[in-house]
Amino acid sequence: MNLQKIKLLAAMLTAVTIIGFVSSCKKDNDEEIIDSDPTSFTEENSEAEFFSNDALNMSDAAANGEQKFRGGNDDMSVLSGCATVNKDSANKTITIDFGTSYCLCKDGRYRKGIINIVYTGGKYADSASSRTVSFTDYYVARDTTKWKKISGSKTVTNNGRNTAGNWNWTIQGNNIRIDKHNGNWHTWSFTRNREQIAGSGTKTVLDDTYMITGGGSGQNSKGENYSSSIKTALKRVMTCPWFESGVVEVTPGNKPTRTIDYGTTGCDATATITVKGKTYTVTLP
User: Measuring CA to CA, which residue among 102, 116, 111 is closest to residue 56?
Assistant: First the structure.
């Protein structure tokens, strides 16, 4: 082999090596970008789930004249003494007013602003009735310097009893938005079925248990879209502020699907998020 051919072969091998190295770097960088914030979308979805359900639970409690629904004992009234419930049966409206200053509630959260409920039907809980929950300058915080403002609305339609004999409701979330103290935000729209599997025979909500199914989609302040789907029904026991079990899959755009598992250990503020075979433990709102 002459010298010219040797030089040409060497140049070709060098080019192949460079291309392979660049391709490898690009792949590694893509994977790094994909995994740079693996829990954010699932945490945002869990946050939206929590605040949406929290408002609905308080609305139901206020409508029933029952304010004791979280904490496992009859002294636990989340609405606290600084919240005012106003009912207008003629116009079929209910407001839960926490005032314009932060109110420390019995669940350890501060709230201010108003939750508005407008309902149809003869009574609040009648079969085929519906109610729409919306917000006026409504804030929730564990620490008042790290607040979250909730806006948007959700409509709940009573479907009566299903084939299993259980009461169930269709819940439609309409652009639920959570703005945070740091300028970040995310929105969420969804359709849910909420089935009551225990507690329908009593007036208190403390013994109520629900199973929730459905899906939704959202967007965050970075312009990133995501979709979510409940793969194993979410179990909500009303003496606990978090889901006690259930599995949700969250898919952010074209990135790998994240799986959030609320576990089976009962009432606790932790869940696990799995993405690309890696599992992370997170604390719920």
Answer: 116
94-129 per-position pLDDT tens digit: 999 999 999 998 888 999 999 999 998 866 667 788
282 in Cβ contact with 39 (< 8 Å): yes
For residue 161, being part of any structural domain is answered with yes
2 occurs within a structural domain: no
Buried b (16+ CB within 10 A) or exposed e, 119-142: beeeebeeeebbbbbbbeebbbbe
| Closest residue by Cα to residue 79 from 114, 33, 43 | 114
Domain with 143, as residue range(s), is 36-283
Distance in angstroms (rounded) separating the CA atoms of residues 29 and 22: 10
With respect to residue 270, please indicate whether it lies within any of the assigned structural domains.
yes
129 domain-assigned: yes
Using CA atoms in the order 50, 52, 54, 59, what is the torsion angle rounded to 10 degrees? Answer: -170
283 vs 65, which has greater pLDDT? Answer: 283
Output the six-digit token pair for 57: 């639970």
**Which token pair is 279?**
């599992």
For the chain, how many structural domains are there in total?
1
**What does residue 29 show for φ and ψ, rounded to 5 degrees?**
-65, -40
Residue spans of beta strands (DSSP E) within 120-243: 130-141, 148-161, 167-180, 185-198, 209-220, 225-237
Mean pLDDT of the chain: 81
Compute the distance between CA of residue 209 and CA of residue 196 in angstroms, rounded to an integer. Answer: 6
